[in-house]
Each structure stands twice: as structure tokens, then as C-alpha cells.
Fold this sequence. Notes:
Blueprint: H1 2-9, H2 31-45, E1 50-60, E2 65-76, E3 79-84, E4 87-91, E5 95-100, E6 105-110, H3 113-116, E7 133-142, E8 148-156, E9 164-172, E10 177-185, E11 189-200, E12 220-223
Parallel strand pairs: 6-12
Antiparallel strand pairs: 1-2, 1-11, 2-3, 3-4, 4-5, 5-6, 7-8, 8-9, 9-10, 10-11
Amino acid sequence: MKxxxxxxxxxxxxxxxxxxxxxxxxxxxDTKAKKILDELSIKTKQYKTIVSEFIxxxxxxxxxTKDVQKGKIWIKGAKYKLDIANQIxxxxxxxxxxxxxxxxxxxxxxxxxxKSEDQISPANIFTIYEKGFKYEFVKEEKLKNxxxxxxxxxxxxxxxxxxxxxxxxNIDKAKNQVTSFVIFGKDGTQTTYTIKNFTPNSDVADDVxxxxxxSYPKYEIIDxx
Length: 225
């Protein structure tokens, strides 16, 4: 679980040399993929808030391990609250509070907005593709449920600074929304995020992103700022 959250919150999911075979090199410019991502970005940025439930499947076929977790996220600008497994993470745009229920502790860190722009985090999981990637249109496919999905591959411009080499983004064509994305790690892991529901522009109160220490009276507070 710590591995999953580390990938979701800090330096991707969020590092060492890219796989050496070079088969994942994408063209410098793919105009079709760029148009798709630009339109997706424009629509996503129009949302004032996002509330979404998702499933994370982390697999390592070499080690033959598999872990599934369900989560929910609330996003409002640079603020977010993530509730997953036995952890709650609250970012009020200035401070990040990580509540570890099993350990009965709360860790406090500064929110580094500039740094978070370069990493996959709850605040940008729907817009991470906007910076630092080359991209390639893969396919458009009609699914059994009647919807059409568009698939785009992304490759980091600076692979040596990342711990993954490829990201596959799946987009609902009609809704112009991300339905899932898959991250291929250099260590052989494959992490799939499947969006179960996506509700934009719902009424999310600011106090959702406010940490209340009174809710955790017996927890140890560890200030790492």
C-alpha cells in the first residue's frame, strides 16, 4: 500500500535509467494526439471541482504480485483530499496532512506547488499529460457498451528523472474524459488507475480540505516541515 501511495503522491508513481530497448520512443510531434490532449485539457480546466472514485491495480508480473485498492478524491483548484485504504491525505494548497490510521499518526509537510507540477499527484492526475511528455496516438476503439475510447501513449521527455517509461491514457470520446491510465514502471510494475465515476462541478465545501486535529485525538503529530 505504501508503494501505491508513493507512486500516486510523490515522485511517480513518481526514477534510474529508462528501459534500454528503445521501443517506446515516440515521434516528436503527433498532431492527432496533440489535438486530442488539447481538447481534453480545455474541458478539464473548465471544471471548478472534481469528485471521483477509482480503483488502483498494481501488478508485478516478475514477482507475481498483485494489489487492488479503492479510493476517492475531491479536487478544487490546487486543493485535494484523497481517501484510500487506511490513509487520508489532505492538501489545502499550503500544507499536506497525511493521516496514517494503522500507525495512528499524522505527518505534516509543506505543499510544494512547483514540484508537484512535475509529478503525478491527486491534484493533476487528470491533467498530467500537459507538460513533460511526448505523445503518440494509438487507436480509437468502439467498446461493447457502445462507447468509443481513444488511446494515447505518453513518454517522459526526461526519462532519467522518472521511474516509469510509458503512460497509456484512455479517453471516453463522447464525454471527453479520462476513463483510465496505465503506468509502466522501470522496475517491471504496471499500475492501472480505473475511474469508476467522475463528477465535475459538484458543490464541494472548502472545509473538506481543512485538517481538523480534534478528529484524531490519540494520533501522534509529526511535523516534517
